[in-house]
Design a protein that fits this description.
Length: 336
């Protein structure tokens, strides 16, 4: 399937070769170790480089892949806070860790964004000392970084009264996610399942969904939800979405797992609506897809992790909401 639809990022080489040698004359935006960590307060934004620094910390994420140079910042929050630590805008494959004063790891993230840069949301206690380590995926992964640290206000959606529940069971680590898995590749029986969407007498449907991340065979995967809908009498299906985490919404075509790809894209969340309109002839079957934009959860990669989303849909064919998920065999039968 298309890379945007994949539940995980493509594998990457653990090493890009040797690091640049440590250079004591390099301008040190962050410290080299916790002993000379640079103290910051929130909100904080800075840029720097890890080139020329030593490799002092590895972190538990990225399959404990050591070798990259790192820099260290010190933070003592004024109060208990959920803190967002963001490396978006960095120029290399980053890794990000948070340690307490005893060097116990509090959180670690390798790949949050699609460009392999890192992000964390971590609960910190006011008055305690923490160390933020800006690192790289492995040996040879170093360069310019952008660091932002600020209190984070989480998105908490109000679920509309009367919304139809998606019905997916809670995510579990090392359990294949087979519910509305569409063209997914995990071992499922049947292997491919779509969730039908049908409107009320006016063609409307409000769906309350759950998505998130889980671990399978040692890899963090996204829960991707695949839906099948029929265009109603007006010739257009409109979908407005909101979510507690950043989410993609796609129209997919062709209706073939060997060739399917996004043909229309919208972004939604956190607590920000996105909209997508699919036009066609009444009776046309369409595929819709929802899933996290990011490949790992913001809380340091801890899985399973889930969030709520809501789809407000109009223009659907007016049929009773189906109970059974449609299989790939059933989809193919529509075109025989």
């Amino acid at each position: 399937a298309n890379d945007l639809l994949a539940p995980r990022q493509d594998p990457k080489p653990p090493s890009l070769g040797a690091n640049s040698p440590a250079d004591p004359d390099v301008l040190r935006q962050g410290g080299d170790t916790v002993a000379d960590a640079v103290t910051i307060t929130m909100p904080h934004a800075s840029t720097g480089t890890t080139e020329g620094y030593n490799d002092d910390y590895a972190g538990s994420c990225a399959f404990y892949n050591p070798g990259a140079p790192d820099v260290v910042y010190r933070l003592v929050p004024d109060q208990d806070d959920l803190v967002a630590i963001d490396l978006w805008g960095s120029s290399y494959d980053t890794k990000l860790m948070v340690y307490d004063v005893d060097l116990n790891e509090i959180a670690c993230n390798d790949d949050y964004y699609a460009d392999y840069t890192s992000y964390l949301e971590v609960a910190l206690i006011g008055g305690r000392e923490y160390f933020i380590v800006v690192d790289g995926y492995g040996q040879g992964h170093f360069g310019d970084y952008a660091l932002a640290v600020a209190p984070h206000e989480p998105c908490d959606l109000d679920i509309p009264v009367g919304a139809v529940a998606e019905g997916e069971p809670p995510l579990q680590n090392d359990v294949a996610d087979c519910y509305n898995n569409g063209c997914g590749t995990l071992p499922c029986d049947p292997p491919h399942n779509w969730q039908p969407l049908a409107g009320d007498a006016t063609g409307a449907l409000v769906l309350h969904g759950r998505s998130g991340w889980f671990t399978y065979s040692g890899a963090a995967l996204r829960d991707t939800d695949w839906f099948e809908a029929v265009i109603g009498v007006d010739g257009a299906v409109n979908v407005v979405a909101d979510a507690e985490a950043a989410m993609f919404m796609f129209q997919l075509a062709p209706l073939d797992c060997n060739e399917v790809a996004p043909v229309m894209t919208a972004e939604a969340g956190p607590c920000q609506e996105g909209e997508l309109t699919v036009t066609g002839s009444p009776g046309d079957v369409i595929w819709l897809w929802t899933g996290p934009q990011m490949f790992s959860p913001p809380g340091g990669g801890i899985t399973p992790a889930e969030f709520d989303y809501v789809l407000w849909i109009t223009g659907l064919a007016s049929e009773p909401v189906a109970v059974e998920l449609r299989t790939w065999t059933g989809v193919k039968s529509l075109y025989r």
